[in-house]
Specification:
The structure is a homodimer. Chain A has helices at residues 15-26, 48-52, 70-80, 94-107, 113-118, 122-125, 136-152, 166-180, 187-196, 200-206; strands at residues 4-9, 32-36, 59-62, 65-68. The first copy, chain A, is built from ten helices and four strands, in the order βαβαββαααααααα. The longest helix of chain A is centred in the middle third of the chain and has 17 residues, at 136-152. Chain A is α+β, with helices and mostly antiparallel strands. In chain A, strand 1, helix 1 and strand 2 (32-36) form a beta-alpha-beta unit.
Chain lengths: 217, 217
Amino acid sequence: MAAIALYSDAFWISPWVFSCFVGLREKALPFEVAEVALHKKEQLQGGYAGSTLTGRVPALRHGDFWLAESSAILEYLEEAFPPPGHPRLLPEGLTDRARARQLLSWMRSDETLPIRHERSSETLFYPGSPVRPLSANAQGAAAKLYEVAGRFLPRDDASVFGSWSIVDAELAFLLHRLIAGGDAVPEPLRRYAGAQWLRPSVAQYVAHARVPFVRYF
Amino acid sequence: MAAIALYSDAFWISPWVFSCFVGLREKALPFEVAEVALHKKEQLQGGYAGSTLTGRVPALRHGDFWLAESSAILEYLEEAFPPPGHPRLLPEGLTDRARARQLLSWMRSDETLPIRHERSSETLFYPGSPVRPLSANAQGAAAKLYEVAGRFLPRDDASVFGSWSIVDAELAFLLHRLIAGGDAVPEPLRRYAGAQWLRPSVAQYVAHARVPFVRYF
């Protein structure tokens, strides 16, 4: 099989690298991780921008084929490595799969941006990162997240779609930003996010050794 | 067949409604357009937020199934209405399809946000809309757009993937923001965007009658 590499930020804090890492692990694919020093703008140098076309992280290299954008990478893995050899990342049913893509898109949208901005992802992996109280804008975004997550997870469920999907990993990541920030995450969502963090593919990313953090954004 | 409705902003200026509208027309599906008065926050009222789960426009209703987020709607149309009865919206080949999703995702990302913010989409459809010179930040975003589009469209081609895909409609929309703003769009990209605007599915959206614009964002 053609070799697979995942191009990651050097601090292992990108939510989009996280999602691709978990996707590759869940698909039981062998791959190496190549670190791109975003703090040195390596993504804009050398062949990386040319190979990826957009010069963004994450990127996947599968043999000679390069691909950037996490949502495109997840869909590519789903199509290139289908069941039964490789478990699904998205739900099987047509409408559940559509709903999953809706939530994945929404979590990348402007409506969650205040949370992602004020609860930057290094706070999940570098204890002692400074955290300030949420602005009114981010409080509104968090309230909407709790409301939307409550609609997707109406009961105290272990997964959004009845069995694990990549949506669970991404939703847990977003919730953990607020949990790490000491914010008032509703207890059922807190339990859900905590349980997701124990999943082996996720735990392996979370527990990865990290070099000291250098702010670059 | 179960009835289809597309929920649109009332001024017909949303790039994401545009893409879904074009997708439905290209699939040769009968559908009605239902207008949601975002300027009156109708998307947050009544059953709309509950039905769509996220209270966003566009949304698709197919029988009893509701779905929001344009990228999820396009994928749903692709899966629910496949060839030969319904032409593809995404390229057929695995890697081309992946590349198409990369560009669709990138065009929704923070890297194009300064263009979308400073070249707001009403400027495409409401002649005389005020336009200011681009900030340095948006100039940088436009320069990257020209560079990335040039990588995807290395020659003076009519489409990114050799035959039409939804990527062409969305890329043309993004370029038309700058064309409408009088910005220095490279001539090959200007020709490409102009040609895309003549495609019947696209032209029908562009030429749709519009009520007077009321700013709400």
